[in-house]
Each structure stands twice: as C-alpha cells, then as structure tokens.
Amino acid sequence: MKYVDADMKEQAIRERSISRLAHVEEHAGEDGLGRFEIRKATGELWDAHEVRALQERGLWDVEWLEAEDEKHEGGWRILGLTEVGRNVLKKWRDRETA
User: Fold this and answer.
1) How far apart are alpha carbons 56 and 62 in whole angstroms?
2) Running DSSP on this structure, what letter comes out for residue 43?
3) How far apart are alpha carbons 82 and 59 in whole angstroms?
C-alpha cells in the first residue's frame, strides 16, 4: 500500500510494518513500549534500524535512551503512533474491509 509520509513523500508500507503499528496502537500506554516488552509479548526482536526507519517516515514517536547515540542504534522506547501512523493504519484496515 502507498501513503504520504511526514515529509510529504510517497512511500510504500509492508504488512510487517503495519503489524508493528497495530501492536503499538494496542499496547503502548503512557510509558510507551520498549524492546523487551515487545519481545515478551510478540516473541519478535524489533531492531533499531526498523524502529528508526518508521520514525523517520513519521509513523511513530520514539525516545532514544542513550545520550551519545546520535545514529539511533541503541536503546529505544516507542511512545505511540503519530497522526500519520494512525491514518496509515486506518487506511490499511479500511482497505481490508472494502
């Protein structure tokens, strides 16, 4: 599926990324979700590259936990979906029910 990201660029999104967005939407509370909570709940290990890529596309907000981590390769917490992320997830779900 195609969507327009936070920088107004057309992007494609895969089902795997949609499942990640859905998990965050359903489980991120006030404190967000970290890698260990996600692994415990899903059995999957989400790597920093994937988390960073979806952040750069404006789909979710991430807190990077290591102060000197300019490349965003270390610890992280996903705080929740952005408006763009919520809209992409809604569009995907609407497409499935159409």
Assistant:
1) 10
2) S
3) 5
